[in-house]
Specification:
Blueprint lengths: L10 H19 L5 H19 L3 H8 L5 H22 L33 H4 L3 E2 L1 H7 L4 H9 L6 E2 L5 E4 L3 E2 L2 E2 L3 H7 L3 H8 L11 H6 L3 H11 L3
Antiparallel strand pairs: 1-3, 2-3, 4-5
Helix pairs in contact: 1-2
Length: about 240
């Protein structure tokens, strides 16, 4: 799956488009807002819009059901974001962590990932991994034979996430034209826990100037991602 599910756009392109529209709206709404603030607000809006589209259908429907609460929740999010930004600024660590402060406690503080890998086991896959599918879906929709999928899994060429018992599901964002993107094996050689590897691949990385590693792999920028993974990986 090499296309972002909004009008064929990639995730980073979609986020940038939303950011530009928000900046334009702010400029028309209040000329007193300074340009850096407009840019920041646009980036926040674009990142959130992009992240929502990667949620499972179940969680998208859950958001749809709380429309009345969204303004209050958004206000809490922004206040927490501002507080975290101020804390990092005072501590001189503005780029210390490449993950949002609002992530569940189980994945905060991933600057020390070796202590967090086990915590991910207790989280629902649909809460953080985006859209996933089993081997039946992949065979029927992406025409990936089960034997091929298992071979990729044995060779660490695809990320498989355990979902109860012995069942595995596969994040769809790692597939391009019916194959896993190049570079997955290199990342797994450095970040051996599949859940931790996928979490890292799908979040903005401070070591990649805030870009999302899986997006770069889809653009064949493998070396940059591997170097960032090496810096991130424990010991």
């Amino acid at each position: 799956m090499n296309r972002f599910p909004i009008q064929g756009m990639r995730q980073d392109d979609f986020a940038e488009m939303v950011a530009e529209e928000v900046e334009r709206a702010l400029a028309q709404y209040d000329e007193a807002i300074n340009k850096p603030t407009m840019v920041s607000v646009g980036k926040i809006a674009g990142s959130i819009a992009s992240a929502v589209t990667l949620l499972s259908p179940k969680h998208q429907r859950a958001i749809d059901s709380i429309h009345a609460d969204l303004p209050g929740l958004a206000s809490k999010f922004v206040r927490a974001l501002a507080a975290e930004a101020a804390r990092r600024s005072e501590a001189g660590t503005s780029d210390a962590v490449g993950l949002p402060v609002i992530l569940p406690a189980a994945v905060e503080g991933m600057s020390n990932p070796s202590n967090k890998a086990d915590d991910l086991e207790s989280m629902l896959i649909e809460d953080w991994a985006g859209r996933v599918a089993g081997s039946t879906y992949l065979e029927e929709n992406l025409h990936i034979a089960r034997s091929t999928l298992h071979r990729w899994q044995r060779r660490n060429e695809v990320i498989a996430l355990r979902k109860g018992g012995r069942k595995h599901v596969f994040p769809l964002a790692q597939f391009v034209d019916g194959r896993p993107v190049a570079g997955i094996r290199d990342v797994l050689s450095l970040i051996s826990n599949p859940r931790l590897a996928w979490l890292w691949l799908t979040r903005p990385s401070a070591h990649l100037d805030g870009r999302v590693p899986i997006d770069l792999l889809r653009q064949d920028q493998i070396q940059d991602v591997v170097e960032a993974a090496r810096v991130f990986a424990p010991g």
